[in-house]
Amino acid sequence: MDEMRLGDVIDDHCIKCRRVTNHSIVSLVDGQAAKVRCRTCYHDHDYRHEQAPPSKKELKKLEAEAQAAAAAAEGDQTSEQPVSETEKAASG
Ligand SMILES: [Zn+2]
């Protein structure tokens, strides 16, 4: 595959479909796909080279890291303040 052409169908990861689907090339840069359009949902996006965006797994990992950091910070404090739940109820 030395040269791509507009309208060529290639595989790429569609964010909307959340999976690899057929895409048409709608924009070329230096003979390489720059923008593609999903043939399933017609969503245009930059060609991602079949790379999925950060997945739930990835986000979970980031979340776990954030929690670990928060836990470390919390362990630093001697006492935690009780949360008051006496919120005013809107009446009237
Ligand atoms: Zn799609």
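^ zinc ion complex. The first strand starts at residue 9 and ends at 14. The first helix runs from residue 56 to 76.
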